[in-house]
Amino acid sequence: MFKKNEAPISLFSFQDIVTSLIGIMLLILLLMCLQLLTKVETKQTSNERKETVEKLEKEKQQALQKKMAVQEQHSSVAIPEKYAHYSSYELNKITVDLRKEYAKAKQKKQDEIEKQDLLEDKYQSAIKEEKSAEKVIKEVEKETKEEVRKIKKNIRDLNKQKEKLNQKIAASKYIKITYNTSDRLKPIVSVISGNKISVRHLAEKKTVFELNQTITKKDIETLLDKLKEYSMKNYHFVFLIKPSAANACRDLQIDFMTKFSGEEYGIEPIFEEEEIQ
Question: In angstroms, how far is CA 119 from the centroid of its own chain?
Fold first, then answer.
């Protein structure tokens, strides 16, 4: 049989263990309390900061409201003493109406300022456009003066050309008939138009016959009869016919040949403006 081995438990050892456990638990409890106190202090600090910020924000809002109230007090219309007996409701209504009027007046003033600014902008723009227009006008005036100078020069040149041309035209109006003075036959020149017959004796440089009227075929016959007065042996006859006398001189050649058989003659058309020199 085995012998039972029993060792006695020391009371001192058991108490040490309990004491150690209690110490550990107290230490843990102390740490938890410290942590809790830290959180509480942190929360309190955060709350204090939040309260401080809110307080500052509130003070800021109050200061802003006071400032706005002062501004409204300065900008609002004072209530006359005759409204002093009005009720609070009536005074509030009057105040609202006055503020509306003030707002309208303020808006009107703002509109006038904006209108004035707009007018000022338009004025400045008009000044710029005027200066630009003046510059353009000066340039145009300069160009115009140059063009006028050129035109005047061209007019002077044209007048000179016109004068020369008129001289040429005037000279070309006259038909210069030359003949050999040694020739036996002297020219008798008849210029016939629609309203005139002029007969020139070139050798004697004079007009020997003239008829101023509407020329007809009968007047041509009268001319031929007048030419018969000159000796056929000493003269030859030249007829210068203008367009206006074409109808009256239609049979001139036949009539001349009938009356002056075998005599020398010449018939030439000329311009209406031409004359013999």
Answer: 23
